[in-house]
Specification:
This protein is mainly beta and about 300 residues long. It contains 2 helices and 16 strands.
Amino acid sequence: MVKIAFVQLSGWSSFGMAGKVHCTGSCGASNHAPRHRSFLLFLMCVCTATLALAQSEETGISPESIRKGYLYKTEWSVDAALHTNGFYFGFNTGTIQTYRKTRINHFGIGILYHPLETRISQPTGFSYRNYSSYKFGKVNHLINLRAGRGNILTLTEKARKKGIALGLRYEGGVTLGLLKPYYLQVREERDGVIVAREIRYGDAPEDFLNTDHILGRGSFFKGMDKIKLVPGLFGRLAFRFDPGAYDNFIRTVETGIQVDLYASKPEIMVSEKNAQYYLNFYLNLQLGSRRTQAGKSN
């Protein structure tokens, strides 16, 4: 009696696909069985492997993307990134189009600093209160809302249980910049009494730029009703280092470049030159989950 244990299919190799057939037990016929029976069973194994590989190629999904019988079709993830002049948080949804390509939608929010911003902390004559450090000459916070589309490409293989897959992520879209006034606490004399007053640059430019009058940073949430809009575009290109490229749980580190281009120069600083575009290097941690055809995580 001939026993066939299993048919194992390897994934995509660097130059194409390959199939391997492994047998356990007695792969040859017994002394009493006809020899052609072993040959027929061997042909069955080869045909099974060929059909499985053809089906994988037709659907664009490699056997390596199958976990416990499920095919991943969609995914979602969150981003937490630091770049050379700020940070951002993002949310992504994706459709897994082929074994190596995922189409993504990105939504994000972040803060972009001027490259020449300098934080200042100085002693004051006010002994009854501690004031926060501040950034001299900063007139507005620049908060970016981003929405875009892009692709994730898997460039290299990884082992089923160990290893890291190398990938590429590129995306672009629209940016809506929110310019929110930056407030400072300044000292002011009223009827012979020194008091603190919270101002923005437009309220009192001379006091705003006088370090002898500045006590510290004002509230971030003040001035929400005075926000100005600056539309623009953004683009990102990054390498991905993905130990979970074929798993349902997404855990990826990305490093790349990001560019923000605005319709007009956002006024971030009053004492420094403001640019119309900003180029930054960034490092991103991405976590999320992949889902099957049934919409359930494996």
